[in-house]
Structure formats: structure tokens, C-alpha cells
Amino acid sequence: MTRYILQLRYGCQSKTCTTPTCFSCRKALAQGAPVRRYNPTSARTLAIYLASQDNPERALCRNLTSNLPFPPTGKHPKITVQNSPPNQVSDGSNRQDLASMEQDGNNGSKTAPVSRSTVQRDGSDGQAAVPIHGKPRRKGFTITSLEEPRAMDHRSFVQNVFGTAAFKMVEWLTPRNLEILASSGGTNSEERGKDRPDPLPAQATVLIGGGTEVKLDEKSTGIAESMPFRESNAETKTTPSNPSQRPPTKLSTMPPTENIADRLSDSKRPLTSAPTHQTSANVRRRSPELVDPSIPKGILSLSPKKDSQPDIRPLAREMLPARSKRRSSQQTIITSPQLPTSEPRLSVDSQVSSDEAIAEQRPIVPVSNMDGEMQTSTSAEAGVSENDTEEAISTISSPVSTKDTALPQSLSRLSVEMIEFVCDILQTDDTDEKHFLQPQRVHDGLKRRQSNALLLKRRPLPPTGSSYPSGLRSQWHAFIEQSFFDVLCKPDSLLRSFSNDEKRLFDTQTIWYLMFRMTRVAPSLVFDSLWNVAGTLFLPPEKLEATYDWAKDSQSQKTVASKSVSNQNAAQVLNICLQALVAAAPLVTDASQLANMSRIRSDGLILRSKDSSAVEAIELCLQYEDAFSDEMAMRLARRVFAAIPTRRRYGELLEHHSIQRGEKADPDVLDSVLATFKSLDLGTPPMLNFPDIERDFHEKRVPTLILDWARTVLLQGWEGGAEIPNDGPLGGALAMIAAIYKIRKPLRIGDFSFRIEYFAERLDSVDMPLEWLDSVPNKRTVHLLDHPFLFQPSTLVTYFRAINYSRMNEAHETAKATYNLMRSTISEGNLMTDVDRRRRLSDRLSTAISKFIVLEIRRNNVLLDTFNSIWRREERELMRPLKIRLGEDGGEEGLDSGGVQQEFFRLAIAEALNPDYGAFTVDSRTKMTWFQPGSPEPLWKFELIGMIISLAIYNGLTLPVTFPKALYRKLLGQDVTELHHIEDGWPDLANGLTTLLEWDESEGLVEDIFARTYEFSVEQFGKPVSRQMGMANNWPQFEDLNYSSNPTDAPMVTNENRNSYVSDYIKWLTEISIRPQFMAFQSGFFSCIDRRSISLFDSSTLQSVVEGIQEIDIPELRRATRYIGWEASHRTVRDFWSIVKRFDFDQKKKLLEFVTASDRVPVGGMGNLQFTLQRNGVDDGHLPTSYTCYGILLLPEYSSKDVLRQKLAMALENSKGFGFA
């Protein structure tokens, strides 16, 4: 709410802002015209609406200055916190946001007064007004929201609704303030005194990062505690200061009465403190017994008293000045705010090597032991190398105790051993986060170790074997969580933790395992930290700063914590985040189980309703739902996928910039990420010891689960339309699915893994394909049909036929409207009274008013009549519904309702592809049809044959043809370059070329064994014709054929040129030798079919659309059959299927052709086939008949099974011609 109000009223001050709800964008679009700023009520009204949307962050401005809790321009008052009379707020108690101060210091912006919110607390000994983000410690408080004065119109509906206290509560009643209400209400002072500090101390001034003063009043002994600032909200807390509650301690290193402020002023440099990260609203507080009460730790300027007992926490890292690189003095070390500890320490079984993982602050702090004596220890005892210690802070030259070791406040990197160590500690201490991810804990059987790796373990407390106290466990917990947060939320430390000494990222299985360990002990923290580091991916690379102004504007808004990353590092960060998402899924070890779960979730389901699966399967489905509905994991997934289109856009700009400079462009970010999925092929063994079966399964797990996450983001963010934004989480998820689809074969992923039937069930199957056909590709949106692999092939065929039907219906309705207009013009009683003029007008409009394209075909001249009927037809005629009159000159009475068309195309295409005509050749083994190189037939015949096939597909019919997949790849505009592209059409040739490529010359030279010359040769009309490949680029046609021009000195194929020979041979076979014939055929093929519409298919699906499916499954046909007048259990029906079951392949084809007029199964299988058995009386004298248009077999009830077999065979052998079809 606050961010929306700020960007609506004040904007982000960016000149290139493109967020419509940002005031800076409105101002830029106005181009100098006056722009009225929203008043507070209007801004709150719009903010409430925007924040209540399904994705409340969608309209937020991404620029940094829009996140400030104050207007970018304005004067921020000085922070003072002091006592006030009862029920009174001091007029001078203003607050100041540190992030705004830092921004103002960098940019030099002006400041202005702002509104404030305060907490009033009542008490007998005085009241103190503190910021609302602080935590009140006394009962009887009230919360008010003070705003800038404005005119109030009591007749205004908007002000009376959105200006009420109820809506104002939306702004200031945040989760943190709800904690104030919950923690302060309903308890008396005695109860609070047990676990809560006393009121604020008097006359204390707290120095906060950069010299900002916070004045505190003190009625009793105690000091202020500086708490972390989260999201630009300051928290001020108090600490208990009762000397009797803590045992006295001794301090030999510094007099207790020394003025800490003087010591701070002598240091002459800013001090830093380690950051803290709180994973819950409740702040963890240290036990008083474990804190040295004599040493003030905190940047406090006050005169300490002997009985003062400081208990402070360091400030957040974002609010602190940069760390000094020089060595610190002993005096500075002692007064620096630290995390005081007592007993926890690290030890290793063997010598610990120098580790860079110790925090940016590793001071030697005084540590009180269990007896209350003060001791110090070096950072080397805690596993800190000497170089790291010199870089951060020096040690104290004082007596060192090897018993007590100061625990570092955080780590700057996490090694594999360290991750194992800290995760084991959280599990052992039972301080890990309670979650629903499975398995909830990692037992020893799932742990993997490095070979010869150091085994880190915690030194036991005396007596040996005793458990750690709860206070020490809490400190270990806080230290580990702080380390996770510090390492994972920054790109540099994250990449150093997951890279080897050569700065190469670990293999994906090792990264997955480490994320698996961390997400089982602190999933929310891990996902939140990775979400933070993923935010740096949206910052433009530094290379763009010198080229584009908007990049300069983005660079100027960066903070210390937000540093842009290169494309290579961005790909590595994406890889780590994706492995964390994969690790969040339940641990499955069965590949089939993994695939089944992916299918269930692709339908948008949690459980498969029709499955009668066991309890374990249902439990696994629920575990999947728990993982994929985890709020923090889903939040990370959305940000990761949203970063993909952003980084790809940056990559395009960098590529354009590199081309201009002649430099090599960086690879695409997704290509870099996906290149790491094939770890076995890359030859990079995992760092950890994984069995081979686990390594093989991991290659299937990673892409499958990433697809599941991408689908989940798509389904949750989908708004029901076929067009989705090209950027954002949806565009990134779709781009990830498309990128994995391109490399699905190396990853061994089937096409079914990419289906999302959820879309097909909710999109209109007629309107949606037409919208896609009319849409213009752009960079802002992408249509779902641009990625047809998301749909089942049968669904795509439905969309394809819907497009054709719509075009057919439009042509039919246009002709019908023209006919009605002509009839109204030439009818009697109208202006046109001349009969001759009426007749001439009717003749001239005969083409325009014909509602069908009618072909009259004789059975003895099918192909000739077809050529004559479709020759020189207009496009609008071909678009109309087709009607066939077949064999009417011979007395046939075929009424075309579909069956006559099927019969006509079967006859016409069989004659057109007859190799005796010299236009096509048929392979003797595979029966595949291909173009005859240098055919004597004219090119217009190839075009007409293409038109015949186009008419059949346009009218929804399949043809009895068998073309190789190479033809369909060429029709789709795809290259035919690989051996597997031709192996279905020329299997013998493909085997021979494969043998040539794989031949080992140790068994003989290639030229000696194969004796091939570098030429392409075919046999034309009984004579060989050859051309040397590489010397010519065209094939001689029939009229230009000269057999004497065959090369006689072509070079031999050797080991050096055999690869190029195979590539050239495939090119000459499928492209150069048949180029004129194919171009003519292609022109006719697209006469009725839209070129874009067939882009829905791959080569296999397009082949099924043209040819149908040749395999006939009788059991499946029986399940799909419908009965009229029969029962499925009737004797005649059972006899019929018993006979058909024993048919060979040719008899099955004849049966299917007899009933449906086609011997091919349509796309989608038998379920899309109309096959009906209808009772036709009781008579042994009649043969079975059929209605081919409707797929009905009229079957009489015969007296015996033998009679049925005889009559059915006779009908199938004599099925030519129609009586009524």
C-alpha cells in the first residue's frame, strides 16, 4: 500500500519509467503538459484496488526510488525519540528514514516534511512516544495515523469511504504493527517484566550509520538497543537493566568506567556490525546468562554506569557504511557490536585448511565462560585463516584459551563440507524449520560425501555426550541462518560457494544435493534469500550503460547490495535457483512415477480422479501439491522465470552492440543454463559420490521438474486468454518450456511431457485458432499456438480443421449472399425487365454465385477429368465446399455426403502417383513415393497433383499415399540434413551411409572398402545419370539430359571428406535433384491451405493429417464401435468380431475401406472413426452393405458363422462402385 501510494503521488523520478501507475511515467507521457497529482484519498483508493488484485506486485514500479517510504523530493526531519506528557505527542518528534537519507546523500535531492505515525503509551512514570515501527513495552497504548492537512468534503462519497479509519488501517496496520498489538495487549506489568525489557532509558543518544542521532530519555538504568532495519522501517527496542538479574563478571581488558563515547571518537573511523536476518516476526533474544554485562556493545554515546547491562543487536547490513580494509585496533574491536557467545565452537577431525568462508567481521570478542570469567580467543581457532583475519580485523594480544572459541557472526561463503556441517547441526539440535516438503529430514541413507573430504563436527561439551543447552542451540541457529542469508542473497558469495577453485560452477547434481540439504532445514530462508539474489538479474549489465540512457538511469539507482551481473553470471545464478526449485519437489527415485506425476499436473489436477491408485500414490500427489504450492518457493519461481525474458532482452541488445563493434556476442542465457543439464555428456563428474543409477535418473529429474514448475507458474498466472505477455513470469516460463523442447531428444524427454491439456479444455476450439491466424507476431505478447507442442496432436488437428471450415463457410456465405442479391435484381417486377440482360448477368455471375465447387468425374478417366475440372479455377471457388459426381454417366447413383469424395480421391491419387507415368518413383521395399529427378512430365501436372492433395486435406479427408517424412519437413520449411530424416524413405541408403561414417580405418581404408566417388547418381529410364557434387548446383531436366556429360574423373570418398559427402548426398537427394518438381507441387499444395496453419504440426503430425494412420487395431476398433439394432453380446456380433480378428493386414484395410471409404485411421485413433454395426434383417441371401458417408455396416443376421464369413468375404472382394452412398 505504501509503495503504491508513493508511486501514484510522487513517482520514481526516472525519466525512462514505463509503469502506467507511476507519476513519473504520467509526467513523461504528458510531454510538458500540466499533470495533476493525486491527493492522498485518491491515491489510497487506487492503491487499495491495485493491492487487492490477484498479483498485487504486477503494477509496482521496478525503479529503486519508488520503494522509498518518503517522497523522493522533500526534507526529512531529524529523528528524536523522547518522553511526552500523557495523551500528548511531541511536535518535534519526527522520524527520518535511513534509506532516504542515504539516497539523498547520493543524489543530493531536496527534502520536505512528511506525515508520521506514532505510538502513544500510558504509564505511571511517564509516557514515551516512539515510531510506530518500534515495539511498545507498556500497556495502554493507542495508534494514530497523522496525515498532511487537506480540505474535507463531507458530501464526497470517496472521502467518506476511503478516508475512514478502516481504510487508513490498511496503510499502517502492517504485520509488524499487528505484532505490537498482539505483544502489548492483555498483559500486566508483572507478567511482562519476566520476559520484556523495561521502558526506554533516559538521556541516551544512539548514533545510527553515518551520524544520525536518536535521543532517548532514561528514567532507570539501561541502554537502547539498535535493531535491524527491514524494508526501510526502523525498529527501536529496549533491554532490561536490572543488575540483580545477572551475575557479576570480571573484565581485565578494559576499565568498566571508561567512557565508550570517548573510545569511539578516538577510533576516527566508522564502525560496522554484522547483519542479522530475522525469519519470523518474533525477535530472538539472547539469554542474560550468556551475555557479558560489563562490556557495552553498540555504537552508543552515553556515560555508562556500573550496573548497566547492555544487550544489543547489530544493525542491518544495508544501513551500514562500507567496511574498512585496514587493520582495526584492539580498542575498536572490543567496542564493536558483536554476537556474544559462550561455548559454541568449530573443530575438525584433521587439520583445517585456510577457508574464506568466515564473515566480513571476525573480531576477537571477550567471551564469558560458564564460570563467569572473561577470556579471549583468536579467530584461527574458529577455523579462520590468517589472510581472512588480516582482511577483516586483527586479533588481540592477550592470553588465549584453547577451550573457548568465539563463534563468527556469519560466513561469507559456504563450502560443501560447511553446508553438510551446519545442516547436520540444525537437525541434531532440532532447530530446523518445520515444513511440508518431503522428506522433511535427510537421513544418513540420503547423504552423499566427497572423497577424502574433511569431516566437520562440533566439539562436545563436558561431560562428554551431554546435549547442548537451549541457549547455545539458539545461538547456533541464529548464526547458521545469518550465514545462509548473507551468502545466498548476494551473487558474488553465492557463486563462490557453488563454484570450484577454477571458478566453474558445480555440476547440477551437486548443486541439487546441497539445495536439497538446505531446503530441508530452512526452506523459507533459502527461498527468500534466493528470491533476493534473483532480483539482481533485472539490473542491466554494465556494458549497456555506455550505450543506452535508460541503462545509465538504472545504474544510478543501484545500491551497494544491488550490483548488476554479467550474462554468464546471470545464467549461473538462474541455474542455482532452478536447482533449488527442483530440490523442493518430493524425492522420487522411479522414472515412471516421475513421468506420471508430471502428466497429472499438466492437466491442472492434484489427483487423477479416474485412477484407482494405491494410498502411496495419493500421498505422493498430496506431497507434490505441498511442494508446488509452497508460498516462498512459488514466489522464487515467479521471479526466476520473470528474469529470463529480461536477461534475453539484455542479451539481444548486447549482441547488437557486439556486432557493431565486431566482437563475439555472449550466448543466450537459456542456452547457457540448459547446457549444464547433460552432465554425463560434458564429462564433468559430480563432486560428490553418486551412484551411476542416480546420475542417470538426475538427468531426467531436472528437466522434468523444471517443466513442472514452469507449468505451475503458467497455470497459476494464466488469465484465460490465448495471448500472454512475452515478459514477466508467464513469458519466462513459456520460454523455458520452448527451450527445453528444442533439446528434448538429447535430454530423452518425450513430447507428452510438454502437453498442457488444461489450456485446450478452456479455450474455444473455433474462435481461438482464427484469432491466432489473424494475429501479427510481436515482442510484447505471444500466442499459445505459437508453441503448438503444448497441445495434443488431435487437438491441433481440430484447430487446423476449424480454420479450414471457417474459410470454407466464409466462401460459401459470400456466394450465397451474392446469389440472393442477383435474384433480387433480376426477378420479375424489378428494374431489370430485359430477359437477355438477365440471362447475360446470370452467366457472368455464375462463378460468383456457385455455393459449391462441383466436379463431374468419369470412372474411366478420373485423373484427366480432375485436371480439366480444377484447371484455372479461381481461389474463391476452391475455398467452397466440394461436391463430387462420380460415375453418373455409367448409371451410378452416388449422393455425395462424404463417401463419394473419399472414393474419388482414392482413385485420383492412385493414378497420379503411378510410377508408369514417370512423375514419381516408388521404393520397392518401403512403398514410399518420391519425385522422379528430371521427370519428363510437365511442371503444371505436379502443381495439379498438389492441388488434388490440397483439396482433400482442406475438406478433411485422408489419402492413401505414403510419402517420406522428408517431404513434410520441406513443406514445413525445415531442412533435411540428417540421416534420420531420410531413414524411413530410403532405409538401405541410410544404413550404407551410416556404415560409411562409422567405419574404422584400422580395418581398411575408406576408399578401398567402399569405392565410392564424390558424385550423386540415379537411374532414369534404364540409364544412369550422375553429377559431381560440389561442382554443380542443378540437375538436368529431361529435355536437357545428356548421358555423355556424366563425370569420369570424380574424386574418391576418403576418410577426410566422408562427412561432407554424406551431407552433400542428402542435399542432392532431397533438394537439388527434384527442385523444379517440388516447387510446382508445393505451389499447388498451398492453393487451398494457409501456409501458417500447417505450422501447427511437426512432420509426423502433418504426415498423419495427409495420410492417416495405417495401423489398424481391431480390439481398439471393437471398443469404439457403436451398435444399432444389435447388442454387443449377440451371437452374430460375436461371430463377426471373431472373424475380423483373424484378418490379415490387407483384409483389415478392405474392411475399413468398405465401411468408411478409406483404408486409413484418422488422426487421433479409432476414437475419431465412425464405425457402426446396424442390424439389416434376418436373411442368408443378402450380402453386407454399407453407408460409407456415415460409416455404417448393414449386417444381416445370418444362420451360422460360416455363412457370415462367406458373405463378408464376398462383399469385401466386390466393393467397387456405389448404389447409394
From TrEMBL:
Active-site residue numbers: 1189 (glycyl thioester intermediate)
Transferase is among the record's keywords: yes
Keywords: Transferase, Ubl conjugation pathway
UniProt xrefs under Gene3D superfamilies: Hect, E3 ligase catalytic domain (3.30.2410.10), Hect, E3 ligase catalytic domains (3.90.1750.10), Ubiquitin-protein ligase E3A, N-terminal zinc-binding domain (AZUL) (6.10.130.10)
Enzyme class: transferase
EC number of the protein: 2.3.2.26
Bilayer-crossing regions: none
Domain HECT, chain residue ranges per copy: 874-1221
Organism: Hyphodiscus hymeniophilus
InterPro entries linked: AZUL, AZUL_sf, E3A/B/C-like, HECT_dom, Hect_E3_ubiquitin_ligase
UniProt KW Transferase keyword: yes
Catalyzed reactions per annotation: S-ubiquitinyl-[E2 ubiquitin-conjugating enzyme]-L-cysteine + [acceptor protein]-L-lysine = [E2 ubiquitin-conjugating enzyme]-L-cysteine + N(6)-ubiquitinyl-[acceptor protein]-L-lysine
Amino acid composition bias (Basic and acidic residues), ranges on this chain: 189-198, 260-269, 304-316
Protein name: HECT-type E3 ubiquitin transferase
Any one GO BP annotation for this protein: protein polyubiquitination
Stretch list, region Disordered: 64-139, 183-346
A Pfam family matched in the record: AZUL
One Gene Ontology term of the molecular function aspect: ubiquitin protein ligase activity
Biased composition (Polar residues): 80-121, 235-244, 273-282, 329-341
